[in-house]
Amino acid sequence: MASFKPTKIQVYPKLGEKVTQDTLYWKNYKAPVQIKEFGAITSIDFSPVAPHNFAVTAFTRIHIYGPFSQEPVKTLTRFKDTAYCGRFRSDGQLLVAGCEDSVVRLFDVSGKAALRMFRGHTKAVHVTDFTSDRYQILTGSDDYTCRLWDIPNATELNSYREHTDYVRCGVTSKLNRDLFITGSYDHTLKLFDARADKSVMTMDHGQPVESLLLYPSEGLLVSAGGRHVKVWDLLKGGQPLVSMKNHHKTVTCLCLSSNGQRLLSASLDRHVKVYNTTNYKVVHNFDYAASILSLALAPNDESIVAGMTNSILSIKHRKSPEESAEVSGQQRRTPSYRVFVKGKNYAPKQDDYLVSKPVKQHLAKYDKQLRTFNVSNSLDTALATWTRLRKPEITVAVIKELDRRGTLKNALAGRDEQWLARLLNFLIGNLVDPRFAAVLAPAAEMILDVYRRVVGQSPLVDRQLLRLQELLEREIDYQQDLLEVLGMLDTLFMVEFALEQTEDGEHRR
Amino acid sequence: MVEHGDIRVVHRGGSKINSREPVVTNDSRFLLCASGERVKVFSTSTEECVHDLRGHTDLVTGVLLRPTNHLQVYSCSVDGTVRLWDFTDGILIKVQLDYCSVCVTCSWLMFDIVCMCVCAELFQLVAVHLPQSGDQLVEAQELSAVLSNVSSNPAATGFGRGVRAPPLRSPNAPPGAITYPKTDSPHLLTTQRKGGKNTLMCIACHPKDDCIATGHEDGKIRLWRNFNHKKEYTYTTLHWHHNAVSSLRFTPEGTNLLSGGLESVLVQWRYNQESERDFLPRLGSAITHIAVSPDGTLFCTSHSDNKITIIQSCVKVSAVIQGLVNGESVRTDLMVDPRSKSLVLNGKPGHLQFYSLQRDKLLYNLDIVQQEYIHELGLQQFEVVKVAFDAPGNWMATVEERKPKAAEPEINLKLWAFDEQTQSFVLNTTVSAPHEAQITSMCFSQAADGQTSMLVSASEDGHFKAWQLPRSAYEGPSWSCDFVGDYRGLAPQCCCFSADGSLLAVSFQEVVTVWSPASWELLTTLSQPPKAIRDLCFGRLGCSKYLMGTTASNLLCCWNLLTCSLEWSTSMDVSLLLSDPLTENMAAFCCQAESTDLFVFKPSEPRPVASLKAVCSGKVTRAVFAPREEMLESCEESSQWLNRSQLYFLTQHMLFIDDSVAMTPFYLLLGKHRKQENQDSLTRLSAELMPLPRGSLAIKELLQSPAHVLPSTSVLCSMFVESLLVSVADGSEESKHAEEEMESEKEEEDSEGEMESRTPRPEPASPGLQSAESAAPALTKAQLKELRRVKKLDHGWLADLLLS
């Protein structure tokens, strides 16, 4: 004699992204703090020394924020025009910034007035940086030149006129004081050595270069321009390593997570993509309200700061371990010690005869009713409020089981107005769900068959029926639209396929 | 004389055990049931088959304990004989021949009177008085027809109490009437009511009271009393069953009435307190017969799925004897499980059965559908329609299907992984609605490395899909769709992987497409118009470059895949094509004019390896090559193809018209049967089939009487030799004939152990010869001469035997 086999509840695959370690890591941030600046935020730079303040360059001023303050701790306003690229020196004492008026200003972080003004560029300066010996400044300008300046004397040391378009990005090596790389709108990246008068390496990115990033080891260089992010191997003479095209608008900013395992790229398409630096696959993705111009990560990934074109600065702080624990697991009640351990730790001795207790089959309430062929009651149980709202798959499984047994009609028939309204409500909520449609559509037809005679007698049921009809009409419209789109796509694909084939044929010839 | 092997078809097993109701012995230790041509004796406690009573040459239709000796049992068969057996030793005691009966469909025995239904044109109830004689072979002459025009359903006839003249009840041909002869005048009891669907299904008589219980088609049970007086009978109605009552039985004391039907619930009614009922639900499938042991401690129910359940007084099931389930049809192909080497096919609804071919025993049933089975007529149930195994047996794929009347068919594809610990298959992945229409074919990639398994399923919706097992990092591995292919919107029919798994052939009507599973590129198309491809098969081993196909226009084609061209084709009505996985041979069953021929060939050679004409009658629908446990070493060319595997096949239609007593369609092609050079092979074949009615009496006595009643061997030996020698008139002929008969009998017994049996065979003859020689001086001259002649004759025969 076999035991009763309980109703099989279909397990549906979870839609949406898979939960990985990366999603857990990058989701573990608090809700963002949003600060309104005066204009588009073009640059964010974290101070290398604790407490890791960060400088935000927006419109004609640079604000310096503390790690947790929402008000700037310091504001630098001595710019005649739009400021660009506020950068901290490696000791966090000095800050350099370019300006639309072609003057490069050097500030003491504790003071207000500019310590030095470097004049010599003829157009707006978008790139400024300190070299690793801390005594020189690299600048790049829209006049196609990049220059090296001496800080103590405020004099120009050298000028490189190799680019043929605006120089919009550049980095200095942290390991060698003489090396720096610039990227320009002429699609090239150039590696300069201050000891030579010319560039020593040139790489072609293919698009106007917007951002550059050197790995901490400085063997790899990442460049962003257009929709592409490219990785270059400097040790192999600038050989391209990977090209990634994951954004659908220009990539504006790059940064590296603190452990160097993840690369982040921000783009005008409002998305930030996180790449794994071993295989350069996108492992996570978060989006912002507007196009992102600048992005920075605090040391140890304590916070993510993004500046956008709509002059909003968004700061996300990492959750502290207590906070994240609080969310993930509420305090669960555990059974008392006595219940938990009673008899469980008794080990049978060698010649003990073990009498196993027959395992009792636990059945859900609807299964018990199905076992005794109480079909109407089991449908009632499955339509209980909690089940219906929280676990519609159980309700659907019971309806399916009744249909299989050929008794769905009996279970549906002979109900009152309230019950029918409840069932129709459930149908309206779930009928168009593709997971349930195959089961619920015949059931809905059956309901209409059974209650055809009484339509019009109850305003409540009639209203529900009208809603159901409306829903179905809308769904049919959607389906038609989708079919049309599918047809269009098919033609496009076919055209592309045909083109490829003819091209192939020509190549062969 | 030259020996060469002969191949023949042997009925191997899987007979029905539920065709007649089982019999429990008086001590409740054994259970006897009719199974095909045999009577099987099972132990009620261990479920093992203890004895196999062989002797009948046709279906056994009834088994009954001998009332005067509780260690003996009668059985009757369609071959017209009634045999008496000692079931504890498994020996045949007596044969009663009943020549006048054409076909005994069922029988009852009371005090050595056999009553049987005889089917000529009408069913007739006949009482046969078995003569009391010591002879082995008795012919029954005393026949008296009791009733004519009885129902062919054995459940619709019952015996009541009484000694000499049992009131015998049987429904007449007009449905719903009971006749009961009291001494000699039958009474007629009409049960038919107007407008009711109350056709009589079964009948039972109370052992003590004058009460008859009848079961009806509408699920009602009626208890009739007072029927001895005409038109004054009364009846009460019991109703619990919602479908027809198929079996009724009173317990020996008459306190309870047991009933069963399609619901597969055994209902126990208290006699005279009919409102009290006990139920034993979920017995598996519809109950066809109920039997009660004479002491009332055991109930046995036989079920429609070829199962006998032994129940201890309606409290709990104590044992289940399960035969090969042979439902309405075998939807899945015959498959061989690569691990257990057992035959796999669909059995109980929603189950797969694993059946051991060697032991003729059902190993286990695997629940595929995993849903509560609702026993109701006309309900559409899930059925297992396809099954496939991968080469090492780690994965099994099943397809189950349900076709509701108005809605879309529901199809589920399930993939099962073999679990080493539990030694059974565990569900891994369920794909609901893998295709939009019926799945026509399914196969696993046969790649030997076992690293990447791939499953391909082809469906009538015009697509074939490839399923693969990707390793997912976070959960356990589960199967997912890898590729969807189609070809010009045609519906694929068959799919087949090449032996190394590098090519996939899918047939779309008359076009065969060949794909590369590595890149899913369509490599080439082959076609042989005008008709659709019916079967596809890649060659194995040395012939792996060939692809075989059969078309609906009776064409067998062989394509060479290296040149992508047709190598050869021949016109043959091939109903089934299959390849042996262990050799390069292929078998084709050809259906021509009501009988099937078998051809075994290699795709590379034009001549068939073996061809067998008229293997069986009817169409062969399913067949499978099953690997042998140990390889045979046979050198004969014609039987070499059976060295590594055996071919099993299933026929479509039975010889017998009545389906309920049909012989099981299970045949085995067994290699090697010795054939003598003499032209009498045909007569030998018939000798095998027929019991030996003629022949010398001594041999007969020697062979047929049980060993424990025979005198000592030394006495027998001289008698035996004398019987061989002395008959002067046609001595040599006779003796030769007798010896041949002996041989054939022996071969019948152990045709599989042919190799072993050949060597000991000369022995019984040679001691006989020696004893004859030692006794020679005592013989007369004429006798000596005779003996010399015989000796010469026998010697040549022996020498040949020894040489070979």
From TrEMBL, chain A:
The keyword Transmembrane helix does not apply. GO terms for biological process: positive regulation of transcription by RNA polymerase I; rRNA processing. Keywords: Nucleus, Repeat, rRNA processing, WD repeat. WD repeats lie at residues 118-159, 244-285. One of its GO terms (cellular component) is nucleolus. Pfam families: UTP15_C, WD40. It is found in: Nucleus, Nucleolus. Its main location: nucleus. Gene3D superfamilies: YVTN repeat-like/Quinoprotein amine dehydrogenase. Residues 345-492 form the U3 small nucleolar RNA-associated protein 15 C-terminal domain. Part of the small subunit (SSU) processome, composed of more than 70 proteins and the RNA chaperone small nucleolar RNA (snoRNA) U3. May be a component of the proposed t-UTP subcomplex of the ribosomal small subunit (SSU) processome. Ribosome biogenesis factor. Involved in nucleolar processing of pre-18S ribosomal RNA. Required for optimal pre-ribosomal RNA transcription by RNA polymerase I. Part of the small subunit (SSU) processome, first precursor of the small eukaryotic ribosomal subunit. During the assembly of the SSU processome in the nucleolus, many ribosome biogenesis factors, an RNA chaperone and ribosomal proteins associate with the nascent pre-rRNA and work in concert to generate RNA folding, modifications, rearrangements and cleavage as well as targeted degradation of pre-ribosomal RNA by the RNA exosome. This is U3 small nucleolar RNA-associated protein 15 homolog. It comes from Cyclopterus lumpus. The lineage of its organism: Eukaryota, Metazoa, Chordata, Craniata, Vertebrata. The gene is utp15.
TrEMBL record, chain B:
It is found in: Nucleus, Nucleolus. The gene is wdr75. This is WD repeat domain 75. Transmembrane segments: none annotated. The lineage of its organism: Eukaryota, Metazoa, Chordata, Craniata, Vertebrata. Residues 740-754 have a biased composition (Acidic residues). It comes from Cyclopterus lumpus. WD repeats lie at residues 53-95, 193-224, 238-279. GO terms for biological process: positive regulation of rRNA processing; positive regulation of transcription by RNA polymerase I; rRNA processing. One of its GO terms (molecular function) is RNA binding.
